[in-house]
Amino acid sequence: MRSVLVVLAICVAVCAAGPLWPFDWYSSFNIVDVKNNTLLNFGNWYYHGFSLNSAEMRMDNYHCPHARGEYCTFYFTRQNQMILSHPYAHDKTCCLAGMVGSTPPNWLINATYIGINHNFSNIPLAAWLNVPYTDHYLETLGETRTPAGLAGSSTSLQWNTVTHARPNPSFFELPSHTCTQPCKNSKHILESFKPYMSLLQLQGKSIY
Predict the structure, then answer these.
(1) Please, which residues have CB within 8 angstroms of residue 157's CB and are 6 or more apart in sequence?
(2) Contact, 85 vs 65, CB < 8 A?
């Protein structure tokens, strides 16, 4: 009973404030097909926030969302660019879309608290409905609110080894070659990232 009261007390403080990403962190990640528990993608995630609505982000993928079996890197810049790089495929790069940049720390500003989740991890997590989508954002309880995952009806993103520290700034340096052409299948690629974009980013903007 005491442990339940402790969790509830922590939750009152957490839920009143709403979810906010740490300004500096990095982690390994997995993306899993929840229907058959199949690993779809894995890699490393690097994040640095400049303000509540400005950040830069890098996502290293060992199974590219659009090309399974290939390694690629997504760069999300504070200048509202998404750049895709295939460093082991003759340094190919392409530009995904203007006006869609890195996920800001306050991207969950419209999220709705839905309760404590005991199934996603071996510890209780605060769960939020990622309005206007149906995904559930999950984070740890307590003062240090650590991103834990984003669970949808078909896929689940899991951050496994979150470290609260600023990544090496060199990780955010863009490839030396110039991005001059749009990516093929950009609509398919961008669709997979929509749940990580805040309403502020999407309002009045086309991601295609």
Answers:
(1) 29, 30, 31, 149, 150, 151
(2) no
Structure tokens at 2: 């005491």
Contact assessment for residue 137 and residue 19, using Cβ atoms and an 8 Å cutoff: yes
Q: What percent of the chain has pLDDT over 70?
A: 73
pLDDT for the residue 202: 43
At 201 the three-state DSSP class reads helix
With the CA atoms of 188, 76, 38 and 19 taken in that order, what torsion angle do they form, in degrees rounded to the nearest 10?
-110
Mean pLDDT of 88-115: 77
Write down the residue that tokens 């090496």 correspond to.
168
Query: Shortest CA distance to 193 belongs to which of 82, 85, 89, 112?
Result: 82
Cα–Cα nearest to 45, from 157, 130, 201, 179: 157
